Protein backbone atom coordinates (compact mmCIF):
# COMPACT_ATOMS: atom_id res chain seq x y z
CA UNK A 1 0.00 0.00 0.00
CA UNK A 2 1.47 3.35 -1.00
CA UNK A 3 1.45 6.49 1.10
CA UNK A 4 -1.49 7.82 -0.87
CA UNK A 5 -3.50 4.77 0.09
CA UNK A 6 -3.01 5.07 3.84
CA UNK A 7 -6.25 5.46 5.76
CA UNK A 8 -6.96 8.95 7.08
CA UNK A 9 -7.65 9.87 10.68
CA UNK A 10 -11.18 9.26 11.87
CA UNK A 11 -11.52 13.00 12.61
CA UNK A 12 -11.40 15.65 9.92
CA UNK A 13 -10.26 19.21 10.60
CA UNK A 14 -13.81 20.53 11.05
CA UNK A 15 -14.57 17.89 13.66
CA UNK A 16 -11.37 18.76 15.53
CA UNK A 17 -12.44 22.40 15.64
CA UNK A 18 -15.53 21.27 17.54
CA UNK A 19 -13.39 19.37 20.04
CA UNK A 20 -10.52 21.66 21.09
CA UNK A 21 -9.80 19.42 24.07
CA UNK A 22 -8.29 16.89 21.61
CA UNK A 23 -5.40 19.30 21.04
CA UNK A 24 -4.52 19.98 24.65
CA UNK A 25 -0.83 20.17 25.50
CA UNK A 26 0.98 20.96 28.74
CA UNK A 27 1.44 24.59 27.68
CA UNK A 28 -2.34 25.04 27.46
CA UNK A 29 -2.91 23.82 31.00
CA UNK A 30 -3.28 26.27 33.90
CA UNK A 31 0.13 27.77 34.71
CA UNK A 32 1.55 26.12 31.59
CA UNK A 33 1.93 22.72 33.23
CA UNK A 34 4.05 23.98 36.15
CA UNK A 35 3.35 22.74 39.68
CA UNK A 36 0.88 25.02 41.46
CA UNK A 37 2.02 26.39 44.81
CA UNK A 38 0.44 29.16 46.89
CA UNK A 39 2.25 28.53 50.18
CA UNK A 40 5.88 27.48 50.00
CA UNK A 41 7.71 25.16 52.39
CA UNK A 42 8.74 28.13 54.56
CA UNK A 43 5.14 29.29 54.96
CA UNK A 44 5.41 32.23 52.58
CA UNK A 45 2.38 33.17 50.50
CA UNK A 46 2.78 33.11 46.72
CA UNK A 47 0.54 34.64 44.07
CA UNK A 48 -1.07 32.87 41.13
CA UNK A 49 -3.36 34.61 38.60
CA UNK A 50 -5.56 31.55 38.03
CA UNK A 51 -5.78 29.89 41.43
CA UNK A 52 -4.97 32.72 43.81
CA UNK A 53 -8.51 34.15 43.69
CA UNK A 54 -9.93 30.82 44.91
CA UNK A 55 -8.33 31.30 48.34
CA UNK A 56 -8.80 35.05 48.67
CA UNK A 57 -12.27 34.46 50.10
CA UNK A 58 -10.97 32.18 52.86
CA UNK A 59 -11.39 33.96 56.19
CA UNK A 60 -9.17 33.33 59.25
CA UNK A 61 -11.63 30.81 60.69
CA UNK A 62 -11.51 28.76 57.48
CA UNK A 63 -7.71 28.74 57.57
CA UNK A 64 -7.72 27.69 61.22
CA UNK A 65 -10.21 24.94 60.36
CA UNK A 66 -7.76 23.67 57.73
CA UNK A 67 -5.05 23.38 60.36
CA UNK A 68 -7.38 21.91 62.98
CA UNK A 69 -8.53 19.12 60.68
CA UNK A 70 -5.00 18.30 59.53
CA UNK A 71 -3.72 18.11 63.09
CA UNK A 72 -6.70 16.14 64.40
CA UNK A 73 -6.57 13.57 61.62
CA UNK A 74 -2.83 13.12 62.17
CA UNK A 75 -3.49 12.38 65.84
CA UNK A 76 -6.24 9.96 64.77
CA UNK A 77 -3.76 8.29 62.43
CA UNK A 78 -1.22 7.89 65.24
CA UNK A 79 -3.85 6.34 67.50
CA UNK A 80 -5.03 3.92 64.81
CA UNK A 81 -1.44 2.84 64.21
CA UNK A 82 -0.98 2.23 67.94
CA UNK A 83 -4.24 0.25 68.07
CA UNK A 84 -3.01 -2.02 65.31
CA UNK A 85 0.36 -2.52 66.99
CA UNK A 86 -1.50 -3.55 70.15
CA UNK A 87 -3.59 -6.12 68.29
CA UNK A 88 -6.84 -4.13 68.31
CA UNK A 89 -6.89 -3.72 64.52
CA UNK A 90 -5.95 -6.32 61.92
CA UNK A 91 -4.30 -3.70 59.70
CA UNK A 92 -3.97 0.05 59.35
CA UNK A 93 -3.17 2.32 56.41
CA UNK A 94 -1.34 5.47 57.62
CA UNK A 95 -1.85 8.86 55.99
CA UNK A 96 0.78 10.98 57.78
CA UNK A 97 2.32 13.43 55.32
CA UNK A 98 -0.74 13.58 53.06
CA UNK A 99 -3.00 15.68 55.29
CA UNK A 100 -2.96 18.80 53.10
CA UNK A 101 -3.90 16.86 49.97
CA UNK A 102 -6.89 15.34 51.74
CA UNK A 103 -8.17 18.16 53.93
CA UNK A 104 -7.59 20.78 51.24
CA UNK A 105 -9.55 18.85 48.63
CA UNK A 106 -12.17 17.64 51.11
CA UNK A 107 -13.05 21.19 52.13
CA UNK A 108 -13.59 22.12 48.47
CA UNK A 109 -16.47 19.66 48.19
CA UNK A 110 -20.13 20.57 48.48
CA UNK A 111 -22.66 18.46 50.36
CA UNK A 112 -24.19 17.11 47.13
CA UNK A 113 -20.82 16.01 45.69
CA UNK A 114 -19.88 12.35 46.03
CA UNK A 115 -16.51 10.85 46.99
CA UNK A 116 -15.07 7.49 45.97
CA UNK A 117 -12.01 6.86 48.18
CA UNK A 118 -9.44 4.11 48.08
CA UNK A 119 -8.35 3.09 51.61
CA UNK A 120 -6.16 5.95 52.88
CA UNK A 121 -8.54 8.93 52.65
CA UNK A 122 -9.06 9.38 56.39
CA UNK A 123 -8.71 13.16 56.07
CA UNK A 124 -11.40 13.34 53.41
CA UNK A 125 -13.61 11.17 55.62
CA UNK A 126 -13.15 13.66 58.48
CA UNK A 127 -14.06 16.58 56.21
CA UNK A 128 -17.22 14.73 55.12
CA UNK A 129 -18.37 14.36 58.72
CA UNK A 130 -17.86 10.63 59.21
CA UNK A 131 -17.74 9.19 62.70
CA UNK A 132 -14.04 8.30 62.70
CA UNK A 133 -14.59 5.21 64.83
CA UNK A 134 -16.80 3.84 62.03
CA UNK A 135 -13.80 4.18 59.76
CA UNK A 136 -11.99 1.60 61.89
CA UNK A 137 -14.65 -1.11 61.72
CA UNK A 138 -13.34 -2.61 58.50
CA UNK A 139 -9.80 -2.64 59.91
CA UNK A 140 -11.09 -4.26 63.10
CA UNK A 141 -12.61 -6.95 60.89
CA UNK A 142 -16.14 -6.63 62.24
CA UNK A 143 -17.78 -5.50 58.98
CA UNK A 144 -17.22 -5.20 55.24
CA UNK A 145 -18.00 -1.49 55.37
CA UNK A 146 -18.71 0.52 58.49
CA UNK A 147 -20.96 3.38 57.40
CA UNK A 148 -23.83 4.21 55.05
CA UNK A 149 -22.38 6.11 52.04
CA UNK A 150 -25.72 7.82 51.44
CA UNK A 151 -25.49 9.71 54.72
CA UNK A 152 -22.27 11.57 53.90
CA UNK A 153 -21.80 11.00 50.14
CA UNK A 154 -18.58 9.20 51.01
CA UNK A 155 -18.37 5.69 49.60
CA UNK A 156 -17.07 2.61 51.41
CA UNK A 157 -13.30 2.14 51.28
CA UNK A 158 -12.15 0.16 48.25
CA UNK A 159 -9.35 -2.31 48.91
CA UNK A 160 -9.24 -3.51 45.29
CA UNK A 161 -6.67 -1.25 43.67
CA UNK A 162 -8.23 1.38 41.34
CA UNK A 163 -11.70 -0.21 41.23
CA UNK A 164 -13.20 2.92 42.80
CA UNK A 165 -12.12 5.03 39.82
CA UNK A 166 -14.47 3.13 37.54
CA UNK A 167 -17.23 3.34 40.13
CA UNK A 168 -16.75 7.11 40.34
CA UNK A 169 -17.12 7.63 36.60
CA UNK A 170 -20.20 5.43 36.48
CA UNK A 171 -21.75 7.44 39.31
CA UNK A 172 -20.85 10.71 37.58
CA UNK A 173 -22.50 9.53 34.37
CA UNK A 174 -25.55 8.64 36.45
CA UNK A 175 -25.63 12.19 37.80
CA UNK A 176 -25.64 13.48 34.22
CA UNK A 177 -28.62 11.34 33.31
CA UNK A 178 -30.58 12.11 36.46
CA UNK A 179 -30.06 15.83 35.94
CA UNK A 180 -31.04 15.66 32.26
CA UNK A 181 -34.21 13.76 33.16
CA UNK A 182 -35.12 16.22 35.91
CA UNK A 183 -34.55 19.26 33.72
CA UNK A 184 -36.63 17.72 30.95
CA UNK A 185 -39.50 17.65 33.47
CA UNK A 186 -38.92 21.29 34.38
CA UNK A 187 -37.43 20.47 37.76
CA UNK A 188 -34.62 22.43 39.40
CA UNK A 189 -31.56 20.33 40.26
CA UNK A 190 -28.36 20.99 42.14
CA UNK A 191 -25.19 20.70 40.10
CA UNK A 192 -22.94 18.02 41.58
CA UNK A 193 -19.60 16.42 40.85
CA UNK A 194 -17.69 13.29 41.85
CA UNK A 195 -14.12 12.90 43.10
CA UNK A 196 -12.16 9.68 42.66
CA UNK A 197 -9.14 9.36 44.96
CA UNK A 198 -6.30 7.01 44.07
CA UNK A 199 -2.53 6.75 44.34
CA UNK A 200 0.40 6.82 41.95
CA UNK A 201 0.61 3.03 42.08
CA UNK A 202 -3.04 2.65 41.12
CA UNK A 203 -2.43 4.94 38.14
CA UNK A 204 -0.76 1.98 36.40
CA UNK A 205 -3.94 -0.10 36.64
CA UNK A 206 -6.08 -0.57 33.55
CA UNK A 207 -9.16 0.50 35.49
CA UNK A 208 -7.84 4.07 35.61
CA UNK A 209 -7.31 4.12 31.85
CA UNK A 210 -10.78 2.76 31.15
CA UNK A 211 -12.37 5.22 33.58
CA UNK A 212 -10.67 8.17 31.93
CA UNK A 213 -11.73 7.04 28.46
CA UNK A 214 -15.39 6.95 29.52
CA UNK A 215 -15.13 10.19 31.52
CA UNK A 216 -13.67 12.05 28.56
CA UNK A 217 -16.06 10.55 26.01
CA UNK A 218 -19.13 11.56 28.02
CA UNK A 219 -17.73 14.70 29.68
CA UNK A 220 -18.60 13.16 33.01
CA UNK A 221 -18.54 15.54 36.01
CA UNK A 222 -15.67 13.77 37.74
CA UNK A 223 -12.34 14.90 39.19
CA UNK A 224 -9.56 12.33 39.25
CA UNK A 225 -7.50 13.11 42.35
CA UNK A 226 -4.18 11.25 42.30
CA UNK A 227 -2.14 11.46 45.49
CA UNK A 228 1.37 10.88 44.22
CA UNK A 229 3.02 9.94 47.50
CA UNK A 230 6.11 8.63 45.67
CA UNK A 231 5.85 5.00 46.68
CA UNK A 232 3.49 2.23 45.52
CA UNK A 233 4.42 0.07 48.50
CA UNK A 234 8.11 -0.47 47.64
CA UNK A 235 7.98 0.68 44.00
CA UNK A 236 9.04 4.33 43.44
CA UNK A 237 6.85 6.59 41.34
CA UNK A 238 9.66 7.02 38.79
CA UNK A 239 9.05 3.39 37.82
CA UNK A 240 5.32 4.07 37.40
CA UNK A 241 5.84 6.95 34.98
CA UNK A 242 8.55 8.88 33.15
CA UNK A 243 6.52 12.11 32.99
CA UNK A 244 4.38 13.92 35.58
CA UNK A 245 1.22 11.91 36.08
CA UNK A 246 -0.84 15.04 35.43
CA UNK A 247 0.36 14.99 31.81
CA UNK A 248 -1.47 11.74 31.22
CA UNK A 249 -4.72 13.70 31.03
CA UNK A 250 -3.56 15.09 27.69
CA UNK A 251 -3.96 11.66 26.11
CA UNK A 252 -7.62 11.59 27.10
CA UNK A 253 -8.42 15.14 26.04
CA UNK A 254 -8.95 16.93 29.34
CA UNK A 255 -6.83 19.15 31.63
CA UNK A 256 -4.28 17.82 34.06
CA UNK A 257 -2.85 19.91 36.90
CA UNK A 258 0.07 19.13 39.17
CA UNK A 259 -0.21 20.79 42.58
CA UNK A 260 2.06 20.89 45.60
CA UNK A 261 0.21 18.32 47.69
CA UNK A 262 1.76 19.63 50.93
CA UNK A 263 0.35 23.12 50.28
CA UNK A 264 -3.22 23.07 51.56
CA UNK A 265 -4.08 26.43 50.00
CA UNK A 266 -3.02 25.32 46.53
CA UNK A 267 -4.77 21.96 46.86
CA UNK A 268 -7.97 23.65 47.95
CA UNK A 269 -7.85 26.16 45.09
CA UNK A 270 -7.08 23.63 42.36
CA UNK A 271 -9.77 21.22 43.60
CA UNK A 272 -12.36 23.98 43.77
CA UNK A 273 -11.46 25.06 40.23
CA UNK A 274 -11.73 21.47 38.96
CA UNK A 275 -15.05 20.84 40.73
CA UNK A 276 -16.54 24.08 39.40
CA UNK A 277 -15.51 23.07 35.90
CA UNK A 278 -17.01 19.60 36.27
CA UNK A 279 -20.29 20.90 37.70
CA UNK A 280 -20.69 23.29 34.75
CA UNK A 281 -20.56 20.36 32.34
CA UNK A 282 -17.05 21.05 31.04
CA UNK A 283 -15.86 17.54 31.72
CA UNK A 284 -13.23 15.85 33.90
CA UNK A 285 -9.93 17.07 35.32
CA UNK A 286 -6.93 15.13 36.58
CA UNK A 287 -5.24 16.55 39.68
CA UNK A 288 -1.87 15.17 40.68
CA UNK A 289 -1.14 16.12 44.30
CA UNK A 290 2.64 15.87 44.62
CA UNK A 291 3.10 14.72 48.21
CA UNK A 292 4.83 12.06 50.29
CA UNK A 293 3.89 9.13 52.51
CA UNK A 294 6.01 9.65 55.63
CA UNK A 295 4.92 6.39 57.22
CA UNK A 296 4.61 2.84 55.97
CA UNK A 297 2.29 1.79 53.15
CA UNK A 298 0.40 -0.21 55.76
CA UNK A 299 1.34 -1.50 59.20
CA UNK A 300 2.39 -4.73 57.45
CA UNK A 301 5.08 -2.81 55.56
CA UNK A 302 8.64 -1.82 56.52
CA UNK A 303 9.73 1.23 54.48
CA UNK A 304 13.30 1.05 55.80
CA UNK A 305 13.78 -1.87 53.40
CA UNK A 306 13.36 0.27 50.30
CA UNK A 307 13.95 3.95 51.05
CA UNK A 308 16.49 6.04 52.91
CA UNK A 309 16.07 8.06 56.08
CA UNK A 310 17.61 11.07 54.30
CA UNK A 311 14.75 11.02 51.79
CA UNK A 312 12.23 10.98 54.62
CA UNK A 313 14.03 13.85 56.37
CA UNK A 314 13.91 15.88 53.17
CA UNK A 315 10.13 15.53 53.03
CA UNK A 316 9.63 16.13 56.76
CA UNK A 317 11.02 19.59 56.11
CA UNK A 318 8.00 20.12 53.83
CA UNK A 319 5.49 19.02 56.49
CA UNK A 320 2.07 20.49 55.59
CA UNK A 321 1.14 21.17 59.22
CA UNK A 322 4.35 23.05 60.01
CA UNK A 323 3.95 25.05 56.82
CA UNK A 324 0.44 26.25 57.64
CA UNK A 325 1.27 26.84 61.32
CA UNK A 326 4.15 29.11 60.28
CA UNK A 327 1.82 31.09 58.03
CA UNK A 328 -0.92 31.40 60.66
CA UNK A 329 1.50 32.63 63.31
CA UNK A 330 3.25 35.05 60.94
CA UNK A 331 -0.08 36.58 59.89
CA UNK A 332 -1.34 36.79 63.48
CA UNK A 333 -4.22 34.42 62.72
CA UNK A 334 -3.54 31.89 65.49
CA UNK A 335 -1.81 31.86 68.86
CA UNK A 336 -0.56 29.33 71.40
CA UNK A 337 -4.04 28.96 72.89
CA UNK A 338 -5.42 27.91 69.50
CA UNK A 339 -2.74 25.29 68.92
CA UNK A 340 -3.18 23.93 72.45
CA UNK A 341 -6.91 23.66 71.86
CA UNK A 342 -6.28 21.76 68.62
CA UNK A 343 -3.97 19.40 70.46
CA UNK A 344 -6.70 18.79 73.04
CA UNK A 345 -9.29 18.08 70.34
CA UNK A 346 -6.96 15.59 68.71
CA UNK A 347 -6.44 13.78 72.00
CA UNK A 348 -10.17 13.69 72.68
CA UNK A 349 -10.74 12.06 69.28
CA UNK A 350 -7.95 9.57 69.93
CA UNK A 351 -9.45 8.64 73.31
CA UNK A 352 -12.94 8.23 71.88
CA UNK A 353 -11.90 6.01 68.96
CA UNK A 354 -9.80 3.82 71.25
CA UNK A 355 -12.79 3.30 73.52
CA UNK A 356 -15.07 2.63 70.54
CA UNK A 357 -12.69 0.14 68.93
CA UNK A 358 -12.24 -1.85 72.12
CA UNK A 359 -16.03 -2.11 72.43
CA UNK A 360 -16.53 -3.39 68.87
CA UNK A 361 -17.67 -6.99 68.64
CA UNK A 362 -17.47 -9.08 65.53
CA UNK A 363 -20.50 -10.61 63.84
CA UNK A 364 -21.51 -14.19 64.51
CA UNK A 365 -20.69 -16.77 61.89
CA UNK A 366 -24.35 -16.95 60.92
CA UNK A 367 -24.41 -13.18 60.31
CA UNK A 368 -21.39 -13.56 58.04
CA UNK A 369 -23.34 -15.97 55.85
CA UNK A 370 -26.14 -13.41 55.55
CA UNK A 371 -23.95 -10.82 53.87
CA UNK A 372 -22.27 -12.78 51.08
CA UNK A 373 -24.90 -11.73 48.53
CA UNK A 374 -27.64 -9.11 48.65
CA UNK A 375 -30.27 -11.85 48.37
CA UNK A 376 -30.47 -15.41 49.63
CA UNK A 377 -28.34 -17.78 47.54
CA UNK A 378 -28.97 -21.55 47.49
CA UNK A 379 -25.29 -22.52 47.69
CA UNK A 380 -24.71 -20.19 50.63
CA UNK A 381 -27.83 -21.52 52.34
CA UNK A 382 -26.52 -25.06 51.84
CA UNK A 383 -23.19 -24.09 53.41
CA UNK A 384 -25.04 -22.48 56.32
CA UNK A 385 -27.00 -25.70 56.94
CA UNK A 386 -23.72 -27.64 56.92
CA UNK A 387 -22.23 -25.17 59.40
CA UNK A 388 -25.22 -25.54 61.75
CA UNK A 389 -24.92 -29.31 61.62
CA UNK A 390 -21.20 -28.99 62.31
CA UNK A 391 -21.85 -26.77 65.35
CA UNK A 392 -24.60 -29.12 66.58
CA UNK A 393 -22.12 -31.98 66.45
CA UNK A 394 -20.10 -30.38 69.23
CA UNK A 395 -23.21 -29.96 71.37
CA UNK A 396 -24.14 -33.64 70.88
CA UNK A 397 -20.60 -34.72 71.74
CA UNK A 398 -20.68 -32.71 74.98
CA UNK A 399 -24.06 -34.21 75.91
CA UNK A 400 -22.78 -37.75 75.25
CA UNK A 401 -19.74 -37.09 77.41
CA UNK A 402 -21.84 -35.92 80.33
CA UNK A 403 -23.93 -39.12 80.25
Automatic annotation (TrEMBL):
Residues 1-10 have a biased composition (Polar residues). Pfam families: E1_dh. GO terms for biological process: branched-chain amino acid catabolic process. Keywords: Oxidoreductase, Pyruvate, Thiamine pyrophosphate. One of its GO terms (molecular function) is oxidoreductase activity, acting on the aldehyde or oxo group of donors, disulfide as acceptor. Residues 1-30 are annotated as: Disordered. InterPro entries: Alpha-ketoacid_DH_E1_comp (IPR050771), DH_E1 (IPR001017), PdhA/BkdA (IPR017596), THDP-binding (IPR029061). SUPFAM superfamilies: Thiamin diphosphate-binding fold (THDP-binding) (SSF52518). Residues 68-360 form the Dehydrogenase E1 component domain. Its cofactor is thiamine diphosphate. PANTHER family: 2-OXOISOVALERATE DEHYDROGENASE SUBUNIT ALPHA, MITOCHONDRIAL. This is Pyruvate dehydrogenase E1 component alpha subunit.
Amino acid sequence: MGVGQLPTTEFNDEELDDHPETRLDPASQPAGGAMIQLLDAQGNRREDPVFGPYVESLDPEALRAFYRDMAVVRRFDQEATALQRQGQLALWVPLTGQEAAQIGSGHALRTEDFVFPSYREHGVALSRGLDMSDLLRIFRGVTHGGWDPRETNFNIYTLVLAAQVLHAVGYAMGIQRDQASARAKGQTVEDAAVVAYYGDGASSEGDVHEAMVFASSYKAPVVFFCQNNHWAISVPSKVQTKVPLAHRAQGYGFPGVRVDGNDILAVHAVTQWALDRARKGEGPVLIEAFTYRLGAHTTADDPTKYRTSSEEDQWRAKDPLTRLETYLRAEGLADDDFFEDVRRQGQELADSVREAVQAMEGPSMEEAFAHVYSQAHPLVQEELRWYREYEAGFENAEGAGEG
